[in-house]
TrEMBL record:
This is Anaerobic nitric oxide reductase transcription regulator NorR. Residues 157-386 form the Sigma-54 factor interaction domain. It holds the Pfam family Sigma54_activat. InterPro entries: AAA+_ATPase, AAA_lid_NorR, Homeodomain-like_sf, HTH_Fis, P-loop_NTPase, PAS, PAS-like_dom_sf, PAS_fold. PROSITE patterns: PAS, SIGMA54_INTERACT_1, SIGMA54_INTERACT_3, SIGMA54_INTERACT_4.
Length: 469
């Protein structure tokens, strides 16, 4: 063998490698192209019943002929020129698994052969540890499923509005597909409730629903939260690594709330996942496949964001397979009463009160604009109950959203005999019709001018029976 002079640093490196290999949990053997043993780590001689010095004077053929092993994977490599995997029996009766691989020189001849082996007990222990970890993951997943299913029993769908009933009826059918669904609507209209309803009526209802608020995750943690990471990937990482949201949701549904706040880099990574189902944890080269159904939600006009180059067009079309617009609470007067009565009953039970609405208070609830939608209504009812129904403290602060300035004229004539609700509807209908006429009834152009999504415009047109002549 050709010898090389090693400097001090090289010697330190070599010493480090030898010491580390001696701590390897299995056996390592290196032979030359003739089968003569050049190196063994500290564990091999102990298992083979030899000293290290004895092992280094032998060849792999000697190990077999002298009965140390019943056969050799290295000899198999020397015969075939290909890697070998086999079970060996040591003279002590222990069975070991061994893999041997050739190392070729520039001329294409075998220069070295390296063999790794370990006993079956180690593999059994390793498989048991993997099984335990898998059971832990399944346990966590089952616990989450139990909590979700328990919560569903106490959160019925409350709606008396015709639009909402139609939406829920449509979703009962569309939920059974695996197509992506995106929910549009103002903050607080109940997008999370509809996402839960979709999952509960889907073919994945017995699997997990993973809700994610995209706007609540810091940009620097976004990739690790979605795709997970391996041990030691970055400072502060869990020493055991961690699965990401998309991997944890395998087989179930992932609800991406506030999808419009997703940063550009994550938009690209999410698109790739949606197209391939592939996940690569941070710090890993291994591809993992995950099968999830995506339901997204936003209070923004994604089409407008696409035009402004703030949202990827390809991701928009990938998500926008089934767009659903959830109208605000102010456009669902029947739901105002239904939800108010539901929350009144809920908080009366919670705080052991027996508060009721009078006609004036109900009228105020109807007349209010509800910019915070259902979330604001729920909080308002809770405050009403915990103040023991003190309308002077609570509901009197609710007034119509914004008075119209004197210098602003409504489209059409004023009719002061109308209720505020009817006046608002009449104004909205006339205004939309005016913009439609101005845009020659071109839907996208009209939607852009109104600053709404096309699905919103279609809903309004249907509500007010606006049709092109």
């Amino acid at each position: 063998m050709e010898m090389f002079a090693l400097d001090t640093e090289d010697m330190k490196t070599l010493d480090m490698l030898i010491r580390c290999l001696d701590y390897y949990y299995g056996n390592i053997l290196i032979s030359d192209g003739s089968g003569n043993i050049l190196y063994v780590n500290a564990t091999l001689p102990k298992m083979y019943g030899l000293t290290k010095e004895e092992a280094l004077t032998m060849s792999v053929y000697d190990l077999v002929s002298e009965g140390v092993l019943d056969k050799s994977a290295v000899i198999e490599v020397l015969k075939t020129g290909k890697p070998a995997l086999t079970k060996l029996c040591i003279n002590s009766g222990t069975t070991i698994d061994c893999v041997a691989k050739p190392v070729y020189n520039a001329a294409g001849s075998i220069e070295y052969i390296i063999a790794f082996s370990h006993d079956e007990i180690f593999m059994t222990d390793l498989q048991n540890e993997l099984r335990i970890e898998k059971e832990k993951s399944e346990g966590i997943k089952n616990a989450l499923l139990f909590i979700q299913q328990a919560n569903k029993k106490y959160k019925p769908i409350i709606t008396a509005d015709k639009q909402m009933k139609n939406i829920f009826e449509s979703m009962k059918y569309l939920a059974k597909t695996d197509s992506s669904i995106i929910l549009y609507g103002e903050s607080g209209v109940g997008k999370d409730v509809l996402a839960n309803y979709i999952h509960s009526n889907s073919m994945r209802k017995n699997e997990i629903l993973m809700p994610v608020n995209c706007s609540a995750i810091p940009n620097e943690l976004m990739e690790s939260e979605f795709f997970g990471y391996e041990s030691g990937s970055f400072t502060g990482a869990d020493k055991n690594g961690r699965k990401g949201i998309l991997e944890m949701g395998n087989g179930g549904t992932v609800f991406l709330d506030e999808i419009g706040d997703l940063p550009p880099l994550m938009q690209a990574k999410l698109l790739r996942f949606l197209d391939s189902g592939e996940i690569k944890r941070i710090g890993s080269t291994k591809l993992i496949y995950s099968d999830v159904r995506v339901v997204a939600a936003t209070n923004k006009d994604l089409y407008k964001l696409v035009k402004e180059s703030k949202f990827r067009e390809d991701l928009y079309y990938r998500l926008n397979i089934i767009p659903v617009y959830i109208p605000p609470l102010r456009d669902r007067p029947d739901d105002i009463e239904a939800l108010s009565e539901y929350y009144l009953k809920e908080y009366n039970q919670k705080y052991n009160h027996n508060i009721e609405f009078d006609e004036e208070q109900i009228k105020r609830l109807y007349d209010y604009y509800w910019p915070g939608n259902i979330r604001e209504l729920r909080n308002e009812i809770e405050r009403f109950v915990i103040t023991n129904g003190n309308a002077n403290v609570l509901l009197n602060r609710i007034s119509p959203w914004q008075p119209i300035a004197e210098d602003k004229k409504l489209i059409g004539e004023y009719d002061y005999s109308d209720s505020l609700r009817k006046a608002k509807d009449r104004f909205e209908r006339d205004f939309i019709k005016g913009v439609l006429d101005e845009c020659e009834w071109k839907i996208q152009k009209t939607a852009d001018k109104l600053g709404v999504h096309r699905s919103v415009l279609y809903t309004k047109m249907d509500k007010y029976n606006l049709k092109s002549k």
